[in-house]
Amino acid sequence: MSTNLPAHLAALLPQAVAAAERAYCPHSEFPVGAALLTAEGEVIHGCNVENISYGLTNCAERSALFAAISRGLPPRSFTAMAIHAPGVPLISPCGACRQVLLELMAPDATIVCSGSEPGRTRTWTLAELLPGAFDDF
């Protein structure tokens, strides 16, 4: 766990917290927010959006990435993402999100996660999150 984050990652965390407040999660009551940092320094938010058929739910991480791609930003141009879930001590991306993060973010992108415990964070590289991934792009 790291409490001494680089400034660009520390600045992303409050934005992920704010994104979690916009989550649509009436079924699980498990809000998650993401803040995606572009190579140009812009931040794009995402939150989880649930459906009563859970397989149709979209995670915060993918919501942020899909919003960025939908706006015309090029894949692999995102340098970092912060993810926050207030309902657990510390969150990490699910397996599906890990694969999407690996494909759509820069190869050396950083992921920082937080939860309900103030000051507690964990930071990963994409390679650490998904070793042995499909990465032929």
UniProtKB/TrEMBL annotation:
The keyword Metal-binding applies. Its cofactor is Zn(2+). Zn(2+) binds at residues 59, 94, 97. It comes from the Bacteria. It is an enzyme of class 3 (hydrolase). Substrate binds at residues 48-54. One of its GO terms (cellular component) is cytosol. InterPro entries: APOBEC/CMP_deaminase_Zn-bd, CMP_dCMP_dom, Cyt/Deoxycyt_deaminase, Cyt_deam_tetra, Cytidine_deaminase-like. Keywords: Hydrolase, Metal-binding, Zinc. The active site is at 61 (proton donor). GO terms for molecular function: cytidine deaminase activity; identical protein binding; zinc ion binding. Pfam families: dCMP_cyt_deam_1. Its EC number is 3.5.4.5. One of its GO terms (biological process) is pyrimidine-containing compound metabolic process. Residues 7-137 form the CMP/dCMP-type deaminase domain. It catalyses: 2'-deoxycytidine + H2O + H(+) = 2'-deoxyuridine + NH4(+); cytidine + H2O + H(+) = uridine + NH4(+). PANTHER family: CYTIDINE DEAMINASE. Belongs to the cytidine and deoxycytidylate deaminase family. This enzyme scavenges exogenous and endogenous cytidine and 2'-deoxycytidine for UMP synthesis. This is Cytidine deaminase. It comes from Ectopseudomonas oleovorans.
